[in-house]
Amino acid sequence: MPELEYPKQPYSTVKRLNDRARYSLETIHGIINSSPFINVAFQDSTSPFPAVLPMIGQMGSFARPSADLGDVLDLYLHGYVSSRLMNLARTSRDGGETGIPLTMSATILDGYVLSLTPNSHSYNYRSAVLFGYATPVVDQAEKLWAMELVTNSVVPSRYQNTRNPPNGAEMQSTSILKVKIKAGSAKIRSGEPHDDKGDMNDEEVREKTWVGVVPAWTQFGEPVAGSYNRVEKVPGYLEEWRVEGNEERRREAYEAVKEPVKGEEGT
Question: Are the beta carbons of 110 and 252 closer than 8 angstroms?
């Protein structure tokens, strides 16, 4: 079955270093869902400047909960009921589309790429940008489902291991935005440093300048119990997520040092 891709739109097509571009739903959704924060940009008519907020969110499908990352998914964003973005989303219509237009992005750093000259330095990274229209979720069943989805995106199974479901006050004070995605793109860099031919032929520079990649990843430390914690041991689901997550991110960072297959990724 062919891999689904987002359509290339003028606002979503990668122009510079476009050999690094990806439009695969699976790739883009994977980057978004692996990031602890999603940067959400919107325009408020009361301000001369676009607003950008770091938010917590996750891609999923209420209609098809078993859908995988390569399927068509919505982005669910979690926020306070009376925040500026939530208020705008309740009343916004744009060009016939229902909801407020949003641009959303996420980036994962995999390494520092150190070259012979400052101009050739880079990062190994995975970034994604999505464009869509957001409306508040009003159906209570979908809202509860989305709250569980977002909570478990922070720590898997955390929702089931807390007092749940949310009480009435919590439901009233929390809003969930559902973003229907119109387009998206990803940009990925992996591999070693690459320098200009002139610098590569400069033996003096090459003799004194270390070049290579410093892999980088998010590392979770040992959990520290809260002052009113009464659970003697760190729960197994939490420790498993921490240990396995650390190892997975470490593996990905070192994997990114390898040169990409020609024609697959830019450098």
Answer: yes
∠ CA 3-25-137, nearest 5°, is: 135
- The answer to whether residue 126 is domain-embedded is yes
**Residue 135, beta-bridge partner list:** 178
Boundaries of domain holding 94: 18-255
What are the structure tokens assigned to 151, written together?
A: 């909570």
Specify the 3-state DSSP secondary structure of 247. Answer: helix
Residue 266 lies in a domain: no
Q: Give CA separation, 175 vs 77, 146, 170, 257, in Å.
A: 8, 10, 10, 41
Residue 124, CA atoms < 13 Å, CB-side half-sphere: 27
Residue 95 pLDDT: 56
Q: Is residue 80 part of a domain?
A: yes
pLDDT of residue 267: 42
Name the pTM for this structure: 0.93
